[in-house]
Write a structure and sequence with these properties.
This protein is an alpha+beta fold. The protein is globular. The protein is built from three helices and two strands, in the order αββαα. It has a two-stranded antiparallel sheet.
């Protein structure tokens, strides 16, 4: 996937609800097929189910692989231009994305 738009100001990289729903669909489609895993303490690896995927997992399996070549944000891949947010939502990366 290549960058759709350049959005230099991070404050204009809001993600829409529709885009978040697409991320969830990507998790549902790819997690089992690509056999996403999570390591615990370097000694145990588990295979993930879509409902278990958190932002650490999503970052490792989807976001970094898609953004690394262009050195861009995920929103710059999926947006057609700046997307000023209406809300700021704080979250913990450890909670499942499905929630």
């Amino acid at each position: 996937m290549s960058r759709s738009s350049r959005i230099p100001q991070p404050e204009l990289r809001g993600i829409t609800l529709a885009q978040l729903r697409n991320v969830r669909r990507e998790i549902d489609l790819r997690c089992k097929v690509e056999e996403w895993t999570r390591e615990y303490g370097g000694s145990e690896t588990i295979y993930l189910r879509p409902e278990e995927v958190n932002l650490y997992d999503l970052n490792a399996h989807l976001i970094i692989p898609q953004t690394q070549a262009d050195q861009c944000s995920y929103v710059e891949l999926i947006a057609s231009g700046p997307q000023p947010p209406d809300w700021f939502v704080s979250h913990w990366w450890g909670e499942p994305v499905h929630e």
